Amino acid sequence: MAYKSFTLLHLNMKLTQLIYGLLAMVFFTSCSQFKAITSRDNSTASRPSRKSSAKKVKFLDMSVSPGQVVTSKHDMSPSMPSYNRRKMQRESYNSNIRTSFNALDIERADFLQLKYAIVLDATVETLTNVNLLKSIDDWWGTSYCMGGSTKDCIDCSAFTQTVMQNVYNTTIPRTAQEQYNSSKQINLEDLNEGDLVFFNTNGGRDITHVGIYLLNNKFVHAATSNGVMVSDLNDIYWKPRYRGAGRYISSTPATVSYKMEGAK
After folding, report:
1. What is the CATH number of domain 141-247?
2. pLDDT of the residue at 262
3. Packing angle between helix 130-139 and helix 156-168, nearest 10 degrees?
4. CA distance 100 to 120
5. To pair with 166 at 20 to 30 A between CA atoms, which of 20, 71, 103, 211?
């Protein structure tokens, strides 16, 4: 009985060892497989890309010889036009700029002719001296001040002196009296564009005011009231104060002469 019990106990121990052995084999086998899978995944994730990062460099095929112009065999791209093409583009651009400026000048001239045709009660065709119109327009409305000669303020004789110099390239004295004394005296009915008209505004005989005759009895001057403006010789203020006319230029084209009101 004791032997039998010993045998059963021995068998149970063997069986237990066998079971433990099988379990150990299963455990170590699973760990090996897991390790293999893990290392394969890591090697795949950490493996760098073998794509080449090198860039192809293209060299220009150029030949250079001493004393000769550098030549190139590569194609000119559209963004780099040839010298002749750039020259044509530059000339075309400059031509367009000149045309634009000319168009602006013509447009301004047409506008000034229309504007002063209304002011002077004349037709556009009779206003051919565009430089004179430009000069009047540049000074228009400038305030009057005794002794002034700038765009801030100007007096009558400085205005006539400036316009005669800029428009007619003629130098005349500074004061109204000197301008009258040194000019060629002309009759009222012989007035032409560019002639000077003289006045006395203080009741005496001396010349105290001067303007430039335009046409249709109109003259431009720097008035004490409204600055540079256009007035009429037949105006009730200017007519009784008129003292004479003088001429410095002889090449001025004839314009519509002065006509006294009531004359036939």
Report:
1. 3.90.1720.10
2. 47
3. 150
4. 30
5. 103
